[in-house]
Amino acid sequence: MTRALAPRSRASFAFSAAILSALALSSAADLAHAQGYSDPFDLDGRIALGYAANDRGALDSMAYVSLDAEGRFHFDPDRRVGLGFDVFAINEFDTDTLDYYDIYLFYDFGAGEIQLGRSPSAIELFLPERSLRFGGADQASLLVEVAGQASGLRQISYGSDPALGLSYFGDYGTIEAGLSAHYDTDGDGQIYALSGLYHITDTVQLFAGTEFAVDTGTDLDHRLWMGGRYDDGWFTVHGILSNGVGFDADNTSFELGAEYALDAIPGLSVGGDITMLDLGGGSETLARVGAEYIGENGLGLGGHATVFDDTAFWGLEASVNF
User: Fold this and answer.
1) Own/partner pairs, 273-278, CB within 8 angstroms, 24+ separation
2) Mean pLDDT of 92-111
3) Cα separation of 161 and 156, whole Å?
4) What counts of helices (H) and strands (E) characterise the chain?
5) Average pLDDT in the 2-21 region?
6) What pLDDT, in 10s, does the model give residues 123-168?
7) Can you list the alpha helix ranges (DSSP code H) found in 117-230?
8) Helix, strand, coil shares of the chain as percentages rounded to 5?
9) Is the CB of residue 100 less than 8 Å from the CB of residue 154?
10) Per-residue pLDDT tens for 71-95?
11) DSSP string, 173-206
C-alpha cells in the first residue's frame, strides 16, 4: 500500500516538520509568558536502547532505539499546546534498518486533545502503552505487534511514507472517546478509526474500537477490537480480542497481559504477555516474561525472555525516563 521513503526525502520531511514545530512552540511560549503562567513548559517521556538475540541461527540479533516524548506549553492549568514524538528504529536481518515515527502538534483544552500531523490512530486510546515490549523488544514481539494488536495505521507505516492526519482524544469522566482520519501521502487511500472506553469503576475499564480503510484500490475488511483492563496502580491485567488483523476478516488475535509493581522494591515491576494469532494459516502463540527497574533518577534497566514458534528470544533494554 505504501513505499519506503528515500533517505533524502525522509530527512527533508523531518527537517521541515521540525522548523514548523519550532515556530509554533515559540509562539505558544511567548503567549504563555505574556499571560504570566508561572510554569509554562514541561516535558515527559522515555528514551530506550535495546538489544535482543535468539537461539535460531537464521535470525540475526537486533538493536533498537525508541523515543516517546511530549513537550507542552501551558496557557493555564486546563489549556496547553505542544509537540509529540513516537519514534522506533531497529537494525536487524543483515543490517537492514526499519523504522516508524509519529510527530505531531497537539492542543489540549482539558476535556480533550486534538493532534495534527503524523498523529496516532484513535485505537491508541486503549492499547497498552508498551504492548509486548515490557522489559524490551525482540523480533517476535515486533512481528506480533505489527501482525497483531497494533493499529492498522501503524502496521502499514513501518518504513513507509508518512500517513498524515488529524486525531482527537476526549475525556468526559466515565467515558473516553477517540476519532482519527489519516491519508496516505502517495494517494493510496485513507484510514479512519473510532474508539471508546468506559470506566465501570476507578479500576475497571471496558473498551472497543474499529478501524477501516477506503479508496485503497483493494477490498479491505474492517478491523474490530474489544477488551477490558483492571488497574489499581500496583497490579494491571488486560485482555484484548481483535478481528480483521491486516484488514482481513479471516485473521484474529487475542492478547492477555499482566504487570505488577513490587511494593517491597520501589521502582521494580514484573510482568508477562501471551498472544495468540490466527492469520488464516493456523494459529501461533507468543509467551513472554519481563522485569524492569526504574530508579528515582529516571534511569531504567529491563530484561525479557520470549518463546514464539519454537524459538527462544531474550534481550536487555536501558532507558532514561523523564
Assistant:
1) 273/131, 273/132, 273/134, 275/132, 275/144, 275/148, 275/149, 277/144, 277/147, 277/148, 277/245, 277/251, 277/252, 277/253, 278/251, 278/252, 278/253
2) 82
3) 9
4) 3, 16
5) 39
6) 999 988 776 688 999 988 888 887 777 787 877 666 666 689 999 9
7) 139-147, 152-155
8) 15, 55, 30
9) yes
10) 999 988 789 999 999 998 988 655 6
11) SSEEEEEEEEEETTS--EEEEEEEEEESSSSEEE
pTM greater than 0.90: no
Helix, strand or coil, per DSSP, at residue 33: helix
> Coil, helix or strand for 57?
coil
Residues 6+ apart with CB under 8 A from 230: 203, 204, 205, 236, 237, 238
| Residues contacting 91, CB < 8 A, separation 6+ | 62, 63, 64, 97
As given in the structure block, the three cell numbers for residue 237 are 491485567
User: Quick count: other Cβ atoms within 10 Å of Cβ 163?
Assistant: 25
Residues 6+ apart with CB under 8 A from 265: 293
To 5 degrees, how large is the angle CA 114–CA 115–CA 119?
Answer: 150
Q: Report how far residue 4's alpha carbon sits from residue 10's, in angstroms, rounded to the nearest whole number.
A: 9
Cell of 223: 478491523
Give the model confidence (pLDDT) of 244-303 as tens digits: 988 889 999 999 999 999 999 999 999 999 999 998 778 899 999 999 999 999 999 999
From 21, 111, 50, select the one nearest 292 (Cα to Cα). 50
Total count of residues recorded for the chain: 322
Helix spans in 206-292 (H): none
Cell numbers representing residue 321 in the block: 525516563
